């Protein structure tokens, strides 16, 4: 294709140059004839024309032939005002009328033209012949043989073709170099194959269930597949912008921009837990792949909770076995009244704990979560209690979101208190409604959080626990809490607790339905100990 284009352009350029070249030669020939005619129309010729008769040996003929021989003109014809020749290359034509109309030149006009006369086709020029007083006494007609003009044209063609051939050779060489460069850049793949590969790439990128974001060497997004657009909630015009322009400030933008290094980087975007990996490209850009780990993260946390419950149940099984052994001993020694009292105390304690939670927290998922977390916390030696202000009706719009928030808050509090080991450990949970706004607050008497770190605890990937002790979370729990709060238009923050420890508060507007059940009383319940197993031990 390049060779064909180069050859065609060379031929076109040569043709465009040759087309006006003939006209230029004609114009040059006519102007040369005009210059000769003006030279021949001198006053001496005009005086001889008036003073003598037309003759082959007359002074007019001799002067005209001298000029013709000196200039190489085809002819130099001098005529009078009647159009009668006084000179001619053929002396026999002297005295006869010229073959063309001399009216224009005898009227005082200079004439240039390509015409055919008695001597053939020629480039001719005619000028008036004037005497000393300026009156027209005749005219001079000069012709340049057209064959000489054609010879000049043909003589110039080989040189022009030589230049055209040289230009064509340079074009061919440039085409070959460009072709080699293109083949090297395309790794030898033909253009038809490139089109097929592009179609396959588009189908593959938009068909995979992983997000793909490609950035150029300047850090601007140049490709986003459908899954990445969904996971990152990108606008349709995100292409051409930097990650900082297309995404809200945070860890996700930092990961895409390359400000965070590492493999399998965890980040939270729009409430989704994503695993990101960056791969540099040969042109200086990067390709970032994103995997949605939200469900897996939730399953991992549920498994952690289940494992904690199993541990708590196992511990309670041992505790119940100890009680049964105690019961058996009391019966064997005949202390039946003490055995009956022990059974009543244990049953009342368990029933009171569960009933207290269910009475204050009417949503079944949240109350079940609190019962399970209290058992896990008690197993770790951290009593979990309900705040006197805790009161939440069964009108939660999406209990799963509140379960995620409350579970993460309690898990972090349990870890903080269990690791700190205060003299009188406890965790206090408060859930209450303010209209349609749900307020969740978890307080503990652990080591607390320094003021300079109270914002960093909500950053993805940041945690006070060492990596070996956080196999699933890796700093994602509180980041999810803040993302959920922001999705509701609320807030998530941490403050210091009076007496030591931390208070994490999450406000979720519109998390509750507007109607309030009538059976929720306003009376308060004392902040009794909830962890029955912890009390019994």
UniProtKB/TrEMBL annotation:
SUPFAM superfamilies: ATPase domain of HSP90 chaperone/DNA topoisomerase II/histidine kinase, PYP-like sensor domain (PAS domain), Sensory domain-like, Sporulation response regulatory protein Spo0B. It is a multi-pass membrane protein. GO terms for cellular component: plasma membrane. It catalyses: ATP + protein L-histidine = ADP + protein N-phospho-L-histidine. One of its GO terms (molecular function) is phosphorelay sensor kinase activity. It comes from the Bacteria. Residues 398-512 form the Histidine kinase domain. InterPro entries: HATPase_C_sf (IPR036890), HATPase_dom (IPR003594), His_kinase_dom (IPR005467), PAS (IPR000014), PAS-like_dom_sf (IPR035965), sCache_3 (IPR033463), Sensor-like_sf (IPR029151), Sig_transdc_His_kin-like_C (IPR004358). Keywords: ATP-binding, Cell membrane, Kinase, Membrane, Nucleotide-binding, Phosphoprotein, Transferase, Transmembrane, Transmembrane helix, Two-component regulatory system. SMART domains: HATPase_c, PAS. It is found in: Cell membrane. This is histidine kinase.
């Amino acid at each position: 294709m390049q060779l064909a284009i180069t050859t065609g352009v060379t031929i076109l350029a040569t043709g465009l140059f040759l087309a006006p070249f003939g006209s230029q030669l004609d114009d040059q020939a006519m102007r040369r004839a005009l210059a000769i005619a003006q030279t021949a129309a001198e006053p001496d010729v005009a005086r001889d024309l008036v003073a003598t008769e037309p003759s082959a040996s007359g002074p007019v003929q001799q002067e005209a032939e001298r000029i013709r021989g000196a200039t190489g003109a085809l002819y130099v014809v001098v005529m009078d005002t009647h159009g009668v020749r006084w000179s001619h290359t053929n002396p026999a034509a002297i005295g006869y009328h010229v073959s063309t109309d001399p009216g224009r030149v005898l009227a005082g006009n200079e004439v240039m033209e390509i015409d055919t006369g008695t001597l053939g086709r020629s480039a001719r020029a005619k000028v008036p012949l004037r005497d000393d007083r300026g009156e027209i006494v005749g005219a001079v007609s000069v012709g340049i043989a057209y064959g000489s003009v054609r010879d000049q044209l043909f003589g110039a063609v080989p040189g022009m073709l030589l230049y055209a051939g040289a230009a064509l050779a340079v074009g061919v060489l440039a085409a070959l170099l460009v072709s080699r460069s293109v083949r090297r850049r395309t790794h030898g793949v033909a253009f038809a194959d490139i089109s097929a590969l592009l179609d396959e790439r588009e189908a593959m990128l938009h068909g995979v269930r992983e997000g793909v974001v490609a950035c150029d060497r300047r850090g601007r997004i140049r490709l986003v597949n459908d899954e990445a657009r969904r996971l990152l909630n990108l606008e349709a015009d995100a292409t051409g912008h930097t990650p900082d322009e297309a995404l809200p400030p945070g860890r996700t933008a930092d990961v895409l921009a390359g400000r965070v290094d590492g493999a399998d980087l965890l980040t939270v975007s729009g409430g989704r837990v994503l695993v990101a990996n960056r791969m540099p490209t040969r042109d200086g850009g990067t390709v970032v792949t994103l995997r949605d780990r939200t469900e897996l993260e939730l399953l991992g946390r549920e498994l952690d909770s289940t494992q904690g419950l199993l541990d708590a149940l196992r511990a309670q099984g041992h505790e119940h076995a100890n009680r049964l052994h105690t019961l058996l001993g009391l019966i064997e020694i005949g202390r039946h009244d003490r055995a009956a009292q022990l059974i009543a105390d244990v049953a009342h304690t368990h029933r009171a704990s569960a009933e207290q939670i269910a009475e204050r927290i009417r949503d079944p998922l949240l109350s079940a979560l609190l019962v399970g977390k209290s058992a896990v916390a008690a197993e770790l030696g951290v009593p979990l209690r309900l705040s006197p202000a805790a009161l939440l009706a069964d009108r939660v719009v999406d209990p799963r979101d509140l379960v995620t928030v409350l579970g993460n808050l309690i898990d972090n509090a349990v870890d903080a208190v269990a690791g700190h080991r205060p003299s009188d450990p406890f965790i206090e949970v408060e859930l209450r409604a303010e209209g349609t706004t749900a307020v969740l607050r978890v307080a503990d008497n652990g080591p607390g959080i320094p003021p300079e770190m109270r914002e960093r605890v909500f950053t993805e990937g940041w945690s006070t626990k060492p990596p070996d002790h956080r196999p699933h979370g890796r700093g994602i729990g509180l980041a999810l809490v803040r993302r959920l709060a922001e999705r509701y238009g609320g807030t998530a923050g941490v403050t210091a607790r009076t007496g030591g420890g931390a208070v994490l508060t999450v406000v979720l507007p519109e998390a509750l339905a507007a109607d309030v059940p009538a059976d929720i009383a306003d009376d308060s319940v004392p902040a009794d100990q909830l962890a029955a197993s912890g009390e019994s031990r």
